[in-house]
Specification:
780 residues, alpha+beta, eight-stranded antiparallel beta sheet, 43 strands, 34% strand, elongated
């Protein structure tokens, strides 16, 4: 089969002739392209051997079943894809005669669709070959319907021809070339064909799949927008501990590798559900909360591990599964009520030729209550084994399901290996026809595989890609389900700070008679080492919201679930977002509240205001000028923490210094003939406040210093009546002497306690003499 990417599928030609229609769509023979509604993908889905009426349509069996006529024409290997294709080559024949046809017997008066990949190359873009439906076999081949496929692109094209048969039942189909008199370019035209299919119209329409989700694992790490980790010891008596290390979940060189490694001796433990010892680390990833699947094809290309007890699995679970207790049991469905589809499981054995390494299993699990796997088709799995002497570790194989409403088909490579039509089972319809998430994991040992071998370290479950695609019917059925399902709106990532209890339901709503609640788990806090480490349900919902306050800083999964209040059998709707808990910090809280860790020397620590929830550990500590380290404690909503912080002690003034400043201001406010009324009013206000400070029984140094500074600033802003600018009082000789004696003091802007006696006496003397001393304090 040719690997290609479905590009626009825009019709280059739509020809309607009587009872048939034909289309040609350009599809480059390259990778990593997508249609408007498709996602980027590196490969195409495998072509299933379903109801194609043609044999060997992909030419993997060379020219078997085909009649090929033409000089140097035949089946060759495509260099890009490595797959076979048929080629109608250049010719010297005057009619450029040649064809690649297959005989087929069809029903009368029935509509069919013939499709293929065709590439036509010529120096003249107007040259063409015909896509043929001939009446009669290849030896008769009378004209019935055909379609010209031109060389105007020189690339692979999707070609489709719809036709209705008449009373004839024998036809020949394929590509052909014949002209009455061929030109040189027509003779040199080369046409290639691959993936040829002929189906009844009703079934052909089901084969048009649109890839809507894909991961080709082409990055260098797991894409956590698509996947999260399943961690710890989860199921059965298995012998692996799922971790999130690069060693065990490795995305590199274009593949995902889930790898078994030896678990350190000090971290090994006995499985809590049995007596086997957990001796390996391994990887398990899932799309829960990030991507749902409902009807369609889900497919991987993978190489499986081998060896005693290896247990790789590719499977689905209901999207409302409660994750083995990581989500409140009232907010979803237990196993197997949630439904489970095991797309591929392998139970390895010793020896390359052992049956275990070449056999995969396909199983359904569902039931009407927790741990009751009692559905009509539940548990009765089937197996498929390779018959060519190889095992599933020798190379890559395709594993997938084609899931429609009431029916699921399993396939290995391109062969359908099991089909279950459960449309007649109401319990299956209720538990299986619901959104699912996908899981990939590599286990070791357990109840089914038995004890794991001691030499499994290094075994890998190697996945090349995973794709999800739907045809139109599957898409319509999924849309119908979601139209009737509850919807959660307003869910988005949430950020909180330690100690808070946010309302996580604020702005989030659900409909259809559902009750909305949430669960929080600590997946992001998981530790790979330390024995039997696990993920925990750390908050089970709105009635347990007090626990949010005590969560350690970090990231958490926040799962919203909408559960039907009238019918518990209706699947819950779920959305997953990220909860981020920021660390509580005194410095951050101070800034958020417009506060600073700044006080005044000689005051106590209690004079510095703290945000809500914080208190000083030693509030009676006396501040010193400069910085000092102190501690404070936050305690609120059950969350407590202590933090050390540097506080700054600014220079302060004494009561005597403030009294002196008040005395100066009192003198100045009387000089109404000298200063403007407005500036004197400002000074009077500051003076009144300063006096009120002194009248307190025990004013703080902060209060006195701020009052002092307020008076000083008001004095500086006095405005003379004649010049309307800040006053510059005239200095006499005594003023000048005092000012000169202090102008070089650089230690503090404020007078220090030991220096004030002489200054205060001088100021009082000057006041007695009627001399202004405002300049003195301005310089100080």
């Amino acid at each position: 089969m040719i690997k290609y990417s479905k590009l626009a599928h825009a019709s280059m030609a739509l020809i309607l002739m009587g009872s048939y229609a034909a289309t040609v769509a350009t599809t480059p023979h390259t990778i990593l392209a997508a249609t408007k509604n498709e996602v980027k993908h590196e490969h195409e889905l495998v072509d299933l051997q379903t109801d194609n009426l043609l044999q060997n349509g992909n030419f993997e069996n060379a020219d078997n079943n085909w009649n090929i006529v033409g000089q140097d024409s035949g089946v060759i290997k495509d260099e890009k894809s490595g797959s076979n294709m048929a080629v109608l080559n250049k010719t010297t024949d005057n009619h450029a005669n040649g064809h690649i046809w297959q005989d087929v017997t069809l029903k009368k008066h029935t509509t069919y669709v013939l499709s293929a990949k065709v590439k036509v190359q010529s120096s003249n873009p107007s040259d063409y070959i015909t896509f043929d439906v001939k009446k009669g076999d290849v030896n008769v081949a009378n004209y019935f319907k055909d379609l010209n496929v031109y060389a105007d692109t020189g690339e692979w094209q999707d070609v489709s021809l719809e036709f209705m048969t008449d009373d004839t039942t024998l036809f020949a189909v394929g590509i052909g070339r014949w002209f009455d008199q061929a030109t040189s370019s027509q003779k040199n035209t080369v046409a290639c064909m691959d993936d040829v299919k002929l189906k009844e119209k009703s079934t052909a329409q089901d084969d048009n799949y649109n890839i809507i989700w894909a991961d080709d694992f082409n990055e260098q790490q797991l894409d956590t927008s698509k996947w999260d980790y399943e961690l710890g010891s989860i199921r059965g008596v298995e012998q692996e501990h799922y971790v999130n290390s690069k060693e065990n979940v490795d995305v590199s060189d274009g593949t995902l590798k889930l790898r078994l490694t030896d678990r350190a001796k000090e971290d090994q433990y006995t499985n809590p559900r049995g007596d086997r010892k957990v001796i390996y680390n391994s990887g398990s990833i899932r799309t829960h909360g990030k991507q749902e699947f409902l009807y369609g094809r889900i497919e991987i290309r993978a190489k499986l591990p081998k060896g005693k007890g290896v247990f790789p699995a590719f499977w689905t679970l209901g999207s409302d599964f409660t994750l083995d207790g990581k989500i409140n049991s009232q907010q979803g469905a237990p196993w197997p009520v949630s439904g489970e589809m095991d797309i591929m499981e392998l139970i390895g054995q010793d020896g390359d030729t052992s049956q275990g390494n070449k056999t995969v299993y396909q199983t359904l699990h569902y039931g009407d209550a927790a741990d009751k796997d009692n559905g009509k088709y539940a548990g009765n799995g089937t197996s498929y084994a390779l018959s060519d002497g190889t095992n599933f570790n020798d190379g890559y194989h395709i594993f997938g399901i084609n899931w429609s409403k009431g029916k699921v088909e399993w396939y290995v490579d391109n062969k359908i290996v099991r089909t279950v039509d459960y449309s007649n089972d109401p319990l299956a319809l209720k538990t299986l026809d619901r959104p699912q998430y996908v899981q990939l994991n590599l286990a070791a040992g357990g109840n089914w595989p038995g004890d794991a071998g001691a030499n499994l370290a290094g075994q890998e479950f190697d996945v090349d890609y995973i794709y999800y695609a739907q045809n139109e019917q599957q898409k319509a059925d999924a849309q119908q389900y979601y139209a009737n399902a509850a919807k959660i709106t307003g869910a988005k990532d949430v950020t909180m700070t330690q100690g808070e209890i946010p309302d996580l339901l604020a702005g989030v709503t659900s409909d259809k008679n559902t009750k909305l609640d949430f669960s929080v788990d600590d997946e992001y806090q998981f530790q790979n080492t330390g024995g039997n480490t696990n993920v925990h349900l750390v908050c089970s919902g709105k009635d347990d919201a007090a626990k949010l306050a005590t969560l350690p800083a970090g990231k958490y999964n926040l799962y919203y679930s909408a559960v039907n209040t009238e019918d518990k059998t209706i699947p819950a709707t779920r959305k997953a977002v990220l909860l981020t808990v920021k660390p509580r910090s005194l410095a951050t809280d101070l800034a958020a509240n417009g506060l600073k860790a700044v006080g005044y020397a000689k005051d106590t620590l209690a004079s510095i205001a703290l945000p809500d929830g914080w208190s000083w550990d030693k509030p009676d500590t006396v501040l010193v000028q400069g910085t000092q380290k102190v501690s404070a404690t936050y305690s609120k909503n059950g969350f407590t923490m202590q933090e050390s912080i540097d506080v700054t002690g600014n220079a302060s003034v004494s009561k005597e210094q403030l009294q002196a400043q008040i005395a100066v201001a009192q003198k100045l406010v009387t000089q109404t003939d000298k200063y403007t009324a407005q500036s004197l009013a400002t000074l009077q206000t500051s003076l009144t406040k300063a006096k009120a400070v002194l009248e307190q029984l025990d004013p703080t140094y902060a209060q006195m210093t701020l009052a002092y500074q307020d008076l000083e600033n008001a004095q500086k802003q006095l405005v003379l009546k004649d010049v309307q600018k800040p006053a510059e009082p005239t200095q006499d000789k005594q003023d000048q002497v005092i000012l000169e004696s202090k102008k070089d003091d650089k230690n503090s802007k404020l007078p220090q306690a030991g220096e004030n006696k002489g200054i205060i006496l001088s100021a009082l003397g000057l006041l007695t003499a009627g001399v202004s001393v405002v300049a003195l304090f301005k310089r100080k």
